[in-house]
Specification:
With about 260 residues, the chain is α/β, with parallel strands linked by helices. The protein is built from ten helices and eight strands. Strand 4, helix 8 and strand 5 form a beta-alpha-beta unit.
Length: about 260
């Protein structure tokens, strides 16, 4: 009798466990793709998103740029160069600690070095990668070429194959390069006025939901810093949210 009771209890417990596991699995399956989540997966397509990107830093303006971004609770993407000055080392650390994204630009930004050959480009890029990783623990696979992927050298017979080779190898090596949709024009000359920079951004946003804005973090570009608050306020007023670039960001490439 005792043996029959033990057998009955054992079978009952086993049945309860099986039913419980099946129920949990059913819950988990439904939890993976709830119907109410479907619209959210497509929501970014309808959002107005702005990517603020700064090339060529760190500079003596970087800390002020970071402070302005903090004031407006905005994150940006910095495509950096190699700069081993003490102030620059502090800037790399602050970019990361304040939650901004780091992209690779080049170590030297010297066209005669960067675009001498495909091999020279990657030697320069790897020098930047090694410095960022060794000194600051920064790893990045996003790249912006000096001058962009459709720069003037791509339209010259002697250097066109070099640029094309660089773009091909970037993809083969697992990098993603990003250009921009709006040029703020601040990189043309330090004489470009604050209002010209603001106007370039405002005009570029017309009828655009996703905008990738080219700005510069250069010692001489003081008007970029002055224009930045107005640019952010304008974008906020127009309903844009701000995001940083990573490997999942929709590609913005000239070609």
């Amino acid at each position: 009798m005792k043996n029959l009771l033990k057998l009955f209890l054992s079978m009952t417990i086993s049945l309860i466990i099986i039913l419980f596991v099946m129920d949990v699995q059913s819950i988990q399956v439904h939890a993976m793709v709830p119907e109410e989540m479907t619209p959210l997966l497509k929501s970014k397509e309808n959002q107005k998103i702005a990517y603020l990107t700064f090339d060529d830093g760190p500079s003596l303006n970087t800390m002020e740029i970071l402070d302005i971004l903090d004031r407006y609770h905005v994150k940006a993407t910095f495509f950096v160069k190699g700069n081993e000055e003490p102030y620059a080392k502090e800037c790399y650390q602050e970019m990361v600690s304040r939650g901004h994204a780091i992209g690779l630009h080049s170590y030297t930004h010297d066209y005669s070095i960067v675009y001498r050959s495909t091999e020279s480009f990657f030697q320069d890029l790897n020098r930047l990668e090694n410095m960022l990783q060794k000194e600051f623990g920064i790893k990045s696979r996003i790249v912006r070429l000096p001058g962009g992927s459709n720069n003037r050298l791509r339209h010259q017979a002697a250097t066109k194959p070099i640029i094309n080779g660089i773009l091909q190898q970037l993809m083969e090596k697992g990098y993603i390069y990003f250009d921009w949709t709006i040029d703020s024009k601040d990189g043309i000359s330090p004489s470009i006025s604050e209002q010209q920079i603001i106007s370039s951004v405002q005009k570029g946003t017309k009828d655009q939901k996703h905008v990738n804005i080219l700005l510069h973090d250069i010692n001489s570009m003081k008007n970029t810093v002055k224009a930045l608050p107005d640019i952010i306020e304008f974008l906020k007023k127009e309903g844009y949210t701000f995001e940083t670039i990573d490997e999942t960001t929709p590609k913005i490439q000239f070609n």
